Amino acid sequence: MATIKQIEANRRNAQRSTGPKTPEGKAKVRFNALVHGRRAESAVLPGENQNAFNQLLADVMSAWKPQDEMEKILVEQIAVYQWKLARLDAAEAILYEPGALTPAEFILATHRLSLTQARLDRSVSNTIADLERYRKIRLARAEEQQTAEQNQVNRHFRPGIPASTREGKLYYKVLPEVLGLDGEWREIPREVLGDFPEHNPSEPPGTISRG
């Protein structure tokens, strides 16, 4: 089993290494530094099942139903973290195969595996929290925008006072008005309000409901 001094010496040697120089060498070791691929440019590493990841992504999307681009990005990130956690489960099984690792390598590998699992678990929880927080803010902003738009309409429109006769015929007791560009309020003509004809004064009005 390696001693602490040997492990520290290996780390110092690794730090002094400048890595491959040629494009071929860089391509060869692209995934070597990726303990379980957590720094990979793509969620699916060579040899993994792209269709399985696509199905996982579809399931997570269906569960969270993102409503805009930001929510979609966060939901995709949740799927990526879950995919990487599944990858760790497969890697953990390999560690326990007889003769796969020396005792020292096994200790280091299981330690790194545990740290990575804990980090990914936190990442999933944090991303879900970010998604829920963003969704809450988005809904609040949408409500504020809707209120602001309604207030803008109210500043330029007076709904008037609709009423009905005893027979249930509707009419406007006071016509709706709109604010013109010149700052003057003008009634909306009755012919525009086709469903609310002019009331016959001989017909007594019934209950008035204000708009």
Molecular structure report:
- This protein has 211 residues and is mainly α.
- It folds into two domains: 48-156, no CATH class; 159-208, no CATH class.
- The protein is 55% helix and 10% strand.
- The protein is built from five helices and six strands, in the order αααααββββββ.
- It has helices spanning 4-16, 23-28, 50-64, 69-95, 103-156, and strands spanning 157-158, 161-165, 170-174, 177-179, 185-187, 205-208.
- It has a three-stranded antiparallel sheet.
- The radius of gyration is 34 Å and the shape is rod-shaped.
Please report which band the strand proportion falls in: under 5%, 5-15%, 15-25%, 25-35%, 35-45% or over 45%. 5-15%
Which regions contain 5 or more consecutive residues with pLDDT less than 50? 1-15, 23-41, 201-211
Which structural class fits the helix and strand makeup?
A: mainly alpha
Order of helices and strands: HHHHHEEEEEE
What's the average pLDDT?
Answer: 75
The number of strands is 6
**CA distance, first residue to last residue:** 84 Å
Summed up, the domain count is 2
Helix content: 40-55%
What is the molecular shape?
Answer: rod-shaped
Strand order of the largest sheet: 1-4-5
The helix count comes to 5
Would you summarize the structure shown here?
By secondary structure, the protein is mainly α. The protein is 55% helix and 10% strand. It has five helices and six strands.
